[in-house]
């Protein structure tokens, strides 16, 4: 789901075809919200894709083949909705693509990760910015611990399955960029002193975006919850 303290002016959803294994019993897809911030907007896409079952990710397994199709669907969905304006596009969620090829090489991309970026680019329509990697010195942060309970069996830990992507339109002029990404980080949400070590086996992703306030837009015109920081900017924080 998408929850916002800013007004949501439009929503859509795309439901994937039925998945396999346990995913065959749930409805996965991608949600879209057009979020109004001051006089601007942010396009937010939130997805949860086919999981791999088993403790080793294989780039040619049947789960990866399903994810490949789902990524194409997400890319087409985003292009149909958000290609023709200048507002920022953020696609985030649990893509279940392990970007880390080897646990001891967190800066080396897996093949499936590379294919995902190419597919999200929609044949050159978008440039894809991996915000977690950008703000982590070019290294993939771990976003999945593999366990959330002390002493719970075998762990898949050391995976990077969750992403915050900014999709930049290749047709947009530089003078039409009205936002900047200020920060992106993983939030483990640890639970000290309990049998559960973290709120979830997946860590949260957090991003801060600044939007340029349009001329003449004053404090009184802002919705409740809009940040009143620098005089010419509005701050938006997204967490998944």
Descriptive account of the structure:
This protein is α+β, with helices and mostly antiparallel strands and 240 residues long. It has helices at 62-82, 111-120, 131-134, and strands at 8-15, 29-37, 40-48, 89-94, 126-130, 162-169, 179-187, 204-212, 233-239. It has a single domain (8-239), classed as Deoxyribonuclease I, Chain A (4-Layer Sandwich). It has three helices and nine strands; from the N terminus they run βββαβαβαββββ. The relative contact order is 0.16. Mean pLDDT is 83; it is low at 151-155, 219-225 and 227-231.
What layout of secondary structure does this protein have?
Elements: E1 8-15, E2 29-37, E3 40-48, H1 62-82, E4 89-94, H2 111-120, E5 126-130, H3 131-134, E6 162-169, E7 179-187, E8 204-212, E9 233-239
Parallel strand pairs: 3-4
Antiparallel strand pairs: 1-2, 2-3, 4-6, 5-6, 7-8, 8-9
Helix pairs in contact: 1-2
As laid out across the biggest beta sheet, the strand order is 1-2-3-4-6-5
Distance between the amino and carboxyl termini? 9 Å
In percent terms, what proportion of residues is strand? Answer: 25-35%
Total strands: 9
The rounded Rg comes to 18 Å
Derived structural class: alpha+beta
Shape: globular
Return the CATH architecture: 4-Layer Sandwich
Low-confidence stretches: 151-155, 219-225, 227-231
Count of domains: 1
Q: CATH topology, anyone?
A: Deoxyribonuclease I, Chain A
Name the helix and strand elements from N-terminus to C-terminus, one letter apiece.
Answer: EEEHEHEHEEEE
Tally of separate helices? 3
């Amino acid at each position: 789901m998408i929850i916002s303290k800013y007004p949501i002016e439009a929503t859509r959803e795309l439901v994937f075809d039925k998945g396999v294994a346990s995913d065959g019993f749930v409805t996965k897809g991608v949600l879209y919200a057009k979020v109004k911030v001051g006089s601007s907007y942010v396009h937010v896409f939130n997805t949860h894709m086919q999981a791999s079952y088993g403790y080793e990710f294989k780039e040619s397994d049947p789960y990866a083949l399903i994810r490949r199709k789902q990524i194409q669907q997400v890319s087409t969905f985003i292009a149909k909705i958000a290609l023709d304006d200048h507002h920022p596009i953020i696609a985030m969620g649990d893509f279940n693509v392990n970007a880390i090829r080897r646990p001891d090489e967190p800066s080396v991309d897996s093949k499936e990760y590379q294919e995902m970026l190419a597919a999200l680019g929609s044949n050159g329509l978008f440039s894809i910015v991996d915000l977690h990697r950008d703000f982590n010195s070019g290294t993939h942060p771990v976003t999945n611990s593999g366990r959330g309970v002390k002493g719970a069996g075998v762990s898949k830990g050391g995976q990077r399955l969750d992403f915050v992507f900014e999709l930049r339109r290749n047709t947009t002029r530089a003078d039409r960029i009205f936002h900047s990404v200020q920060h992106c980080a993983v939030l483990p949400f640890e639970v000290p002193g309990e049998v559960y070590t973290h709120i979830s086996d997946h860590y949260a992703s957090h991003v801060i975006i600044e939007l340029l306030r349009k001329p003449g837009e004053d404090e009184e015109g802002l919705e409740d919850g809009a940040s009143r920081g620098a005089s010419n900017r509005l701050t938006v924080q997204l967490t998944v």
